[in-house]
Amino acid sequence: MNKLVKSLFVILFLLCAIQVFADKKKAVEPTLEGEAKVQFDYAFMEGVRFKILGDLKSSLTYFDQCMKIYNRSAAVRYEISSILSLGEDLNLPLQLMREAVQLESDNIWYNLLLANILQKKSMIEEACKVYDELIAKHPEREDFYIIQVDLYTSTEKWEKAIEVLNRYEKQFGVNEPAIIEKAKLYSKMDNVKRASSEIMKLIKKYPENTDYLGLLAELYLSHNQEKKGLQLLNRIVKDYPDNGFVQFYLADYYRTKKDSLNTEKYIRLALANDNIDNNLKVQYLLKLLVNQADLSLSTDHIYRYVQLLLEKYPGDLSVRTLNADFLKRENKLEECKKELEFIISKEKNNYLVWEELMLLSNQLGDTAAMKSEGLECLNYFPNEPLPYMMISLPMLIEGNYAKATGYLQKGLELAPDKSFIKSQLYAYLGECYYKQDSIEIAFSMFDSAIAINPNDIMTLNNYSYYLSLRNERLNQAEKMISTALSADPNNATFLDTYAWVLFKLKNYSLARFYMRSAIENTEEPSGVLYEHYGDILYMNGDKEEALKMWKKALELGDDISDNLKNKIVNGLSVEHEE
């Protein structure tokens, strides 16, 4: 069922519940009198009340009482069926609604629910018969025709669907959606003659609308009647030179025919036409860009089209945005950044451009730009979390942890629950708190980040490393760094962390293997890597090689421990992990 039909059924169902509730006189069967009438009326109204409140169990209990008082009520059957039809077993609801319709055949709501249940049970023919009766009694209801057409179409009963559309047209006159739907159905049946005659109805009624000529041309082309199709398209191009859609359509057509000259001709005609909206041109080139591989187009080819637009319309922001997108795809990040800066200078209230700009500055490692862009962005979008994170990262790098924490906390308040950005904010807060020696808070932040994004490999690595440094939860640390390493097995940082966790777990031989891999996968190993390797070699009994690594670490410096010189003189204590 398409979205339109689903929506109609929901609306009809709700209207039915309101109708029954509003007119409570209909709830009291005319054959009931005295105490039975009072009891039935009370039970029915309570059943409707609980149904509206969502307490379906209580609602069914009251409707069951109604059936015991008077078992010939169509209204009660409807109410029970409307609840039970929400479940998987539709046999009882179907039986009840058939009985309800037999009791009150003219009731629209009962017929609609019966048809709905039949459709759910894939009994399409019978559902359509219900709509036949509804349309016969209510020919003014357009929605009944639409639903019946959709039902027949869902089972590929094209001819029956067309019959319904013909009745619709007879009732309501020539109607664009109905005519186009008929044409599509005839096209599916390969009946080009009937399909074209339907489209001609629209052309005659709306001669100024070239879209219908285009639709007819597309019909011919899709059924191997290329001569007719091209004649129509060329007629449109000649008579209506501002019709960019047709020019682009012809370009696509000639591309499928591998006719590069005509393809180029019609693309350039459309791009150079001042009367064609630039948004249409941009959308077309975006389509080429996204489907570049499938269309066998070179990047340079598309870039020439982008440049043609850029030269002709240098101040058009949609064109500049297209150029920025192209440059980003080609990894020309510095040039892309300049384009985004130009766009934002002209259009400060476009958050998506701010976001692209800040993320690009982050990708380029331009921390000064991240900070300045984030601060300016907050002037226009103070309730977006990303600027707070971008402002905080340079502060974190600079060691201004307290100030970074403030921005990160504000961003955290604004970030949607369980979102990627929220997990990142938690991770960065973990870093800030750890650097400020608020270890328990830091670890709780990392836990929150991983709870949202359990595959955040950088957070898994950092958290694992910090746990290993403190000899805490080493088994958990080993699991986390294993997950990170599985995702990126040649990452030297992850290999180092894994080796260090194994070292703290006293699995020295395996730690040696992973630390050697870490050094081999690093172009310029740092001092800390060599110091770690020395520690591991020492505990493996290779004290001479360990001494070489420690001395090399001392030469390099770079985050080495305060105890390194002592190791070189006295070796490593057995209680190294303390």
Automatic annotation (TrEMBL):
Cleaved signal peptide residues: 1-22
Q: Which Pfam families match?
A: TPR_6
Q: Which organism is it from?
A: Butyricimonas hominis
Q: What name goes with this protein?
A: Tetratricopeptide repeat protein
Note the SUPFAM superfamilies from the entry: TPR-like (SSF48452)
Residues that span the membrane, as ranges: none
Intervals holding TPR repeats: 423-456, 527-560
Q: What UniProt keywords apply to this chain's record, in alphabetical order? A: Repeat, Signal, TPR repeat
